[in-house]
Amino acid sequence: MSASAQRRKNREAAARRRAAATEAAKPERTMASFRENAGENRAHQVQNGASAVALAKSGGAPPIADIRGGGGIDPKTGSTLPAPKPASVSSSDDKAKPKPEAPKAKPVAQGEPGVLRYPMEALSDTTDYLQIDIVQYKSAKEVSGGSLAAGPGSRNIGQSPARKGLTAKGLATKRLKDRGTIILQMPSQIQDSNSARYGESELNTLEGAAAGKIAEIMTKGGEAAANAKGPGEAIQGVLGAIQGAAAEATKDTKALGAAKTYLTSKLTAGALGAFGGNISAGQIISRSTGQVFNPNMELLFNGPTLRSFRFSFKFTPRNAKEAEQVKLIIRTFKSNMAPKVGGDTINGNAIFIKTPNVFELRYRRGIQNHPFLHKFKQCFLTDVGVNYTGEGVYATYDDSTPISMQMDLTFKEIEPIYDEDYQDSDVGVGF
After folding, report:
1. What is the pTM of this model?
2. Contact at 8 Å (CB) between 298 and 183?
3. Which of 425, 428, 175 is nearest to 325 (CA)?
4. Distances 12 to 4, 22, 74, 190, 267 between C-alpha atoms, Å
5. Per the CB 3.0–4.6 Å rule, which of 78, 266, 294, 360 could disulfide with 133?
6. Phi, psi (5° rounding) for residue 287?
7. Which contiguous run of DSSP H or E holds residue 346?
8. Domain spans, the chain
């Protein structure tokens, strides 16, 4: 290379360095402050050219070109710098201070245990939060050890210590499948409701007396048949029981008169029905005598009910890492509530579909169970609803992540609450 060519090359290199240094010395555009209103944040984002990470910073920290983008130009070499690590919310006073690197997330493959959490900074070992563990469903036969009916308490989840998920280390980088833990802030509405099913029952006096006599006849007849030496003796024993009950009933003339009136009314109502009439025996007695049978009404227990819980969570991610966690949390809930296709097929079509995963919910304080709030049994996730316009308008960061989202979850317990469930512990209000 000639001397003149070398000098020309040096001049061009010097010119590039001066241009890069001039560009780096220009004042950077910053956001005035982080605003609670999502629409205002987006307006300022567009006006100032700030990114999602810069939008989440409250004190005018240097903007980043893109939530996924690089970190600008090196003034010495003119080369593109690698993307900086997302930082938590900071003030303008911290701009000159070096930011420690965030701990690297440990990749977690689908199907392996992992932790997803939101928010990143507000949860610590001293705060309250909701922990949701994903568990594969077990049938009643598997839970009971062979029976098709699982006994009371078979769906209790226990109150084991919390998983290690309150630090940024080991955060999942993929959706959780079949197992894993999701940690969320306390819902805005926390409530429980326990109920049982009851129904009104009526049994008038004649029906009650008849039921008692029939039960007596069946008992005596059964005993006579059981003790009989042959079929003939068994028949005689049953007939004797019936005759004995009838003879005893004839001693009460008032009961016989009421029974006669009732039977007559029943026959009359049946006859009228043949002609298109619609009248009951009780109505006939009321019209003819001005009285009705005593219904002996009573409220009877019909069985327990299953509890359901509805939670709402607001997501306003402040940086790239939180935005990624929100996306994975939503996807994890949706995928784990979906049924699974069974292995056996006919002509390529699955014969069975498998029950979705179940969820184990626990209120926590730090790494301990909450000392006051109610407990849960295993739950199915019956409904997931996500509103991607949490502030009433469509607004996104530069990478198209919505700036505000609301997620509604509805869980329903698999098993009812029994009295025995309260015998395990006296901690808190119980179930």
Report:
1. 0.65
2. no
3. 175
4. 12, 15, 17, 68, 117
5. 360
6. -70, -35
7. strand 345-346
8. 3-94, 115-197+305-422, 203-251, 254-290
